[in-house]
Amino acid sequence: MSIAEPLIQPDRGQDAHTIHLVNTASFDDFAKGLSGPQRATLAAQKFKGAGYETAIVPEGDGWFAVGGVADPETLSSWCLAKLAEVLPAGTYRLASGSAGAALHGWQTAQYRFTRYLSESDAEGPRVLLTSEASKIETAQAEARAVALVRDLVNTPAEDMGPAALEAEAERIAKEHGASIEVVRGDRLEKEFPMVHAVGRAAERKHAPRLIELNWGDDAHPRLAIVGKGVCFDSGGLDVKSSSGMLLMKKDMGGAAHALALSEWIMQAGLKVRLQCLVPAVENAISGNAFRPGDILASRKGLSVEIGNTDAEGRLVLADALALASESAPELVIDFATLTGAARVALGPDLPALFTREDATAEALIAAGKDHDDALWRLPLHDAYGEWLKSPIADLTNSPSNGYAGASVAALFLDRFVGEKDDGSPIDWAHFDTFAWRPAAKPGRPKGGEALGLRAAFHMVRQRFG
Predict the structure, then answer these.
(1) Residue from 39, 240, 377, 441 carrying the catalytic annotation
(2) pTM for this model (two decimals)
(3) Is position 314 annotated as part of the catalytic site?
(4) 240 is annotated as an active-site residue
(5) Which residues pair with 54 in a beta bridge?
(6) Which listed residue (222, 249, 314, 463) is catalytic?
(7) Which of 39, 110, 233, 261 has the fewest CB atoms within 10 Å around its CB?
């Protein structure tokens, strides 16, 4: 694991440094209870109780820590994160109150991606003691899921190709009693023609495949989770610029979210019949790469004219969503690093959320707010579906007008999500997520990031138990 464990332990009276939490409103009263030298120490460290300020204060032969937060009585996921990043290695407990949601940031702040480092600069773990022992396992599972997304996204494409995603899925299946099936080769070309077309130009060791995990009791509601697994995106023959290619190891961020969410659901034992699908490809350039102007068949039977080979993620997702729909699940959730348009509209922090059902969007957004994993809903505006028309195929993968790129991509996917047995539309949520943090924040280092993962899990848990 890239998060050393256990970073949270039951408080059984062990020796530990105390952490006092204050804000700017309570700081003066707190300081009145300190000695003159202690107040001078705080002043020397310019500590006034503002958010993410930290200080160490001598006390007898030892010392205690002070952290600035917005509200000491109600902690967010990130209130303890700065302390976990900067305090010396050791064991700590809060002077009063409950860490609550902040248990998450205490752990994720200590995430390190060290796979390629000959030496690590981490000085050792900071362990937080808590009297809420019942919350420890849940908090650790949440942090592990986030760390898994980060690890998979941070790993370079040469070591995180389709085969590596398959190996990760095999690990999850083995550890949690799931079944796994992988479709490749001639069968992939026949049954998932767009997955095959996008990935066929890659070298043999990065050959395309469709990875499927199944877990749970057939008597429980069916839940399908789909993740875009484009392990590197050159843009294909519509090649990206060098700067545009620089972060394309993260284009499998949707698959990372799908695998992490699926494992988290299995660990939690939620009462669902889970199907996880990852179309895993590399969008490479060679003599057999698919071309602009080609017309591809799809699993659903719709033909797709290729307007741009760099709009490949929606192609592989479309075949996977068609398969997911064939089981008429209660809910389909997909994750994809799909469009630059979503990032222009919402920036790096907010996944764009698209749903068919208002209630599903409201539940996901509420779960995101409750767990500091914000989402923003964008429209599936039916009128924009006209832009997907092609004169020679059922639809095009890339309209030329450039408008509403995130919504149009979602509308493309919508064409491949099917109906329930009664003919009503399958409930579907699409996350257009960045899966990357371009600048560090407390508890959230620069690099691969889980964005929308916690919102999705807590919504699923609330809905299905």
Answers:
(1) 240
(2) 0.97
(3) yes
(4) yes
(5) 67
(6) 314
(7) 39
